[in-house]
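Table 4 source record.
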Amino acid sequence: MVLDYDVIQFLISRFGRDKLFNSLDPHKYSLKTFLVPIDVLHPHESVYIDIVNYVTTDLLTSGFLKYPIVVDVRTLVVLDGHHRLEVLKKLGIRYIPAFFVDYAEDYVTVYPLRKDIPISKTLIIDTALKGCLYPPKTSKHVYIGFAIQPTYTPLTILKTLSQNPIAANISPLPTL
């Protein structure tokens, strides 16, 4: 796999070399799913309320969160799953299944879905970490060589963890 030099340089300039390389180990955590505290995540897109309502109905009807969201392991920026994230926030859930990818690797690519808004990996990271949001459905991430597998995480488990994380023995991942 090849690292995107521009993304790595941007991350170093944003966080510093020591903080970037001494935080989450991208090789240890990437391409795996973890339960992550919602409040440490950085979304990069806003959401459509109609989709949030649809996903809420689907989640409450099925009782399962079918797919994890996709998150960059280095910055905790949400790449895919903003509507699912918003639904869980709305329901008072504090943890979400997150599939970690290393955004600096070439197995993740991003394409603009809106002709009038430029998109790149560094722009997405910078926007999210500044607390700003692109409009909904601005970017499309494509993953090469693997597919995000469903987890079918029961809503009851997520609610229980949100009410008593200490009893569930959850330790949050280190953050940047």
